[in-house]
């Protein structure tokens, strides 16, 4: 008994699959609840050092 070969994949399907993996998406940004500066969600704000309206990190 031998292994059944896979079905052939066209060049367009092969190349479109490879093309989508390297694409960079733009990061989601939200306004900080304390200072209003743009930041990534669920992270400490880089400008004021706050998370969930509480100061977590002292920023110089």
How would you portray this structure in words?
By secondary structure, the protein is α+β, with helices and mostly antiparallel strands. It has a domain at 26-60. The protein is built from one helix and four strands. It has one helix at 11-19; strands at 30-31, 38-39, 50-51, 54-55. Strands 1-2 form a two-stranded antiparallel sheet. 3% of the residues are buried.
Relevant terms:
1 helix, single chain, alpha+beta, 15% helix, two-stranded antiparallel ribbon, 60 residues
Quaternary structure: single chain
Task: Give the class from helix and strand content and strand pairing.
Answer: alpha+beta
Largest sheet: 2 strands, antiparallel
Radius of gyration, whole Å: 23 Å
Basic shape: elongated
* Strands, count: 4
* Termini separation: 71 Å
- How many distinct helices? 1
Strand content: 5-15%
Residue runs with pLDDT of under 50 for 5 or more positions: none
Give the averaged pLDDT, no decimals: 88
Query: What is the helix/strand order?
Result: HEEEE
Q: Level of helix content?
A: 10-25%
Read across the widest sheet, the strand sequence of neighbours is 1-2
List the helices and strands and how they pair.
Elements: H1 11-19, E1 30-31, E2 38-39, E3 50-51, E4 54-55
Antiparallel strand pairs: 1-2, 3-4
Write a brief caption for the model:
The protein has one helix spanning 11-19, and strands spanning 30-31, 38-39, 50-51, 54-55. With 60 residues, it is an alpha+beta fold.
